[in-house]
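2024-03-11 09:14:02 DEBUG pipeline.ingest accepted 1 chain
2024-03-11 09:14:02 DEBUG pipeline.ingest length=281
2024-03-11 09:14:03 DEBUG pipeline.predict start
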Amino acid sequence: MVSIMRVSIFMVLVLLLCPGVARSAPDADLWPDWQAHDPQSTDKVDHSAWQNVLDRYLVVFEPGVTAFDYASAKSGGYDAISGYIASMAQVGVDELNRDQQFAYWVNLYNALTVQVVLDHYPVTSIRDINISPGLFSSGPWGKKLITVEGRTLSLDDIEHRILRPIWHDPRIHYAVNCASIGCPALAPKAYDADMLYAQLDQAAKGFINHPRSVRRNGDGAFVLSQLYDWYRDDFGKSDADFISHLTRYAGPELAAQLKADAPRLDISGYEYDWTLNAATK
């Protein structure tokens, strides 16, 4: 009994003191209800309201690096964001084709993330928004935030029960935004089914070619985003597949470095900055 108590206390301390451990990666576990779609559908979802929010409050520093002006959006844009999310809750997702569904889920995920930050702003990190159920949970990802087609969903549900297990596309990780400096950028353009694959490629290139994703340290080893530790199998089960994924989107210099290190990357560690991706004035 004493040993069990000691283990429990140790685990609590680990979760409190080691934030990288606390945000572990859920498995991709498909909810069969969401497999329904209509391949012949020509219906289109209007994401212009979300685009208006991005145009007004997103700051683009360079490709793959953006910040969101939460302070201004808190006072002047909340109704627009909540209105867009409310309209998405009315969409008949089962009646859409797959590309429309993909754009729908990614845009909704990103809008919900912004909304949940605004609901608790000011915060220094999304991890400070501890509204997920469960003793060892942290952040907002497990909290049920929206009802779609009669099913209540959390951010984790959208990413790990719908997007990842249906599409099996590693670029999902570059498209969904976790409101942190270390994560892939919130894209300046709402995802559009008609331009989806070009947008996903651009998101991958923007992240992979930035030092917060892949860089070499002074010893010549690679320091990677912890994203690649949490979701390693999504980016390639073998080292060769993982390197191939990175080099596909890497610029010439980084691609040469990756290929020179093949067939196995010399990885010195993983990093992730959970600081809020807030625009500062």
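2024-03-11 09:14:41 DEBUG pipeline.report The longest strand covers residues 58-62.
2024-03-11 09:14:41 DEBUG pipeline.predict end
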